[in-house]
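It would be a great kindness if you could assist me with a short task in structural biology. A protein sequence and the structure tokens that stand for its backbone fold form the material at issue. I should value your view on which stretches of the chain appear to form regular backbone elements. The record follows directly beneath this note.
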Amino acid sequence: MKKTILAFAWILLSFVGIAQTISGNLSLFANQEIKLEGFNGLKTYPISSSKIDVNGYFQLSYSKADYGVGYLMSADEKPLFVILSGEDIEIVGEALSYTETIKVTKGQENLWFEQYAKEHPRREQALSAWIYLEKIYSVDSLFSVQKTPVQAIQKEKQRIRNEDAAFLAEIPKNSYVSWFLPTRKLVSSVSSVAQYRTKEIPGTIDAFRALDYTDLRLYKSGLFKDAIESHFWLLENSGRSLDSVFIEMKLSIDVMFEKLVLDEAKLNEVTDYLFDLLEKHSLFQASEYLAIKALNETSCTINTDLAKQLETYRAMKKGKTAPNIEFNEAYFAPGYTVGNLPKNLSDLKTKYTVVVFGASWCPKCTEELPEIVKHYSKWKTQGVEVVFVSLDEDEKLFRSFAGTFPFISICDFKKWNSPIVNSYYVFGTPTMFLLDEKREILLRPNSVKQMDAWVDWYLVQGNK
């Protein structure tokens, strides 16, 4: 019987993995909670929590399933990142927010991480300073004749790079940090590369394209989101023309998809996040390309909510004709006489129309619609009409919300089941479309601010 229990215990341990510990002492946090959290792509999850004892001692645990990067969080809410590579870790210090007091005393991968995290930023600062001086000694006529300093600067630059590379080369290739540190270095370098080391931009972009978003090491690293953002930020700020930026973004999307199509869950996660990121930066050509590519990918199933969002771009992209809207339900039309009420969208005689989908229950709509009201008189003088399509279900709420708007407001009280909403592929509120007099889609503004900027640039300035 005893042998049977021991055998079962061994099988169980082999299945779940033997837990590793993170222990140490935080002298200023006696009797307070400390927790360990890990990363799964764009999200974090709790791993372990414990109470620090009266002497500042604590102990947490993690398993093989948490392999990657985690972070400790205590009462000061200042995270301390740790490498969860299967080793026991020990740290000592006063508080996580007092980083100068924190020291890793056990765990080789975390010792390497700690050392590189302290030394690498100093090397980067020194390198940027030498690059700045090199430019002065190369361009400024007062200094350009001095060849010896230029040679010394170039030699020191190379020494710094060699020192950094040598540190990384000495780390065993089978360790997690041997992958993590260069990847972290890549992600953190984009600002310096874009500002001071522009010759490195092509190589840095190639390095981002080489990242595999299905790699579990990246997924668990806490760099998943930062890698996407840094990659496309560098493309946007690479000094190229906008047309060239869009070509490069499309190429990057193609490269990312090569492996993402093999992992449906990560394809959905990356597409969803990247689409929103491109939209927020008004990079609509790139977001449209991403949407259509994702929808045309037959080997994967796109999440239903995401598919609806992306379908807007395929069905309602720039240049297509927007569906006509019948004004046969409850609506307000200030400025129109009873005998001259428009019956549908095509009846409007203005050169441009902004169709806005929103509702009284939408927090963002209660911010954006009043902003449209502020700009409406200027837009109107420039030939822009506004039609507000409400997704309210309650007539009283609709009339209370839209009754004071100086533009046309309509509602069929069917919320997401509204034929109008479905014909425009609206998946969220507020959503806007800018149409010309033939109802051709000119723009999908992502904010009132963007729409107002369009009026100022194309209409107000264009008429001067």
